[in-house]
Amino acid sequence: MLTADSITSADRRRAIAAASANATIWAFGNGVISTSLVTYLAFDLGATNAQVAWIIAAPQLAGVLRWFSPRILANFRGHKLPCLAFYWASVVLLLLLPATAWPGVLPSKALSCTALIVCWCLYHLCEYLGTIILWSWFSVLIPRPFYGRFTGRRELWLNIGRLVGFVVASGFDVWYRQQYEGASVLPLRVALATGGALLLGASTLPLMRMVNAEVRVGASRLLAAGEALLKSRPLRRLLIYGVCFSAANGVSNSLGWSYVNKALGLSLALVLASQAIMRLGQPLLSSWCGQIVDRFGCQRLMIVCQLIVACAPLLYLGGAWGYVASYVALIAYVGTNVSLATLMMRIAGPKQASANFSVYFGLTGVVYAVSVLIDGQLTNQWLPQELRSAPEAYFPYFVVAWLLRSAAAIPLLFLREPPIEPDSRSNR
């Protein structure tokens, strides 16, 4: 067990290498067993639009329990055991997902679909808890002046891994349809889900090489995450942005799957290929974004990226090619992701990292989930079933989504960042 003062340069270099390897393998598996795959798997089981909304929303609702992660972490001396334990539990739950979807395992398709949603929800809960502890671990091992470049490098490998995962999954989808024309694609999707889960399990192996840094949490009380929010004015302002963007993002998400699947009739291969374009562009910009936030801060980059991302729903209106173009716009998410992780670590410091991450992602996740569910209910009433195959019926919906996403950039104008620390090559 190492304290922060006893961590050496070699330990830090090993942590950076392990973080990159973990990000690549995890993202590869995540690209294979993506939300797109699980959604299409649910459609194979006869899922309704309301159930698809739950696939999108349920993981975020479970994620509110991440508020308790500082209290959980305070029960351990080091980061390694709780981090790995939650990741391993998430893999077990994810392996149950394709098992429950296989015909005959459960009495009915409706029950299989329900079990799929439950496994998906619990998987995300464990995975989120493991990720919060992992970032707390990183905040101890990585020197503070290098947070931006570290998150940029990790984002690079995350996008490369997801890109490979999307390409592999879409390639298998195309191959299977050609080899078994007219056959059910359920066996393929079950196989892909199983393979993706095993890759996520393999991603924990690099983390075992990282030194077991001492836990430093600012408070071990049950409501430590809430106290972090009350005490940190920069976090409160960042949280206002996160809540606004999550609400806007949820409104522009739930009916999007109905548009893609029913109005456009796009195959899983094309959906994953579009996402692969986004993942191809993001690695090219992630390191550059990390350098920008280390030198100039996060605010301006986040505003620009938010306005670009907001255009994605409008591009949907261009049909299949517009859907592909929307993922070109979503490349700008890389700037948001790098800036957000860097800003959170700068605001928090090692002692409050787990509390700040848990309160931000827990609350914004709930807001996103609730907005998805509300939107799903409203669109069921406003957009009758017989109109859902007509692309033009979605025009007002996507215009409103663009306006709401653009308005989410307004809170960023009032964001206040901690001072940027000078670059240092010190071991500490």
From TrEMBL:
It comes from Blastopirellula retiformator. This is Major Facilitator Superfamily protein. One of its GO terms (molecular function) is transmembrane transporter activity. InterPro entries: MFS, MFS_trans_sf, Sugar_transport-like. The lineage of its organism: Bacteria, Pseudomonadati, Planctomycetota, Planctomycetia, Pirellulales. Gene3D superfamilies: MFS general substrate transporter like domains. It comes from the Bacteria. Coiled coil: none annotated. Pfam families: MFS_1 (PF07690). The chain crosses the membrane at residues 21-43, 49-69, 81-102, 114-135, 156-176, 188-208, 301-318, 324-345, 357-374, 394-415. Keywords: Membrane, Transmembrane, Transmembrane helix.
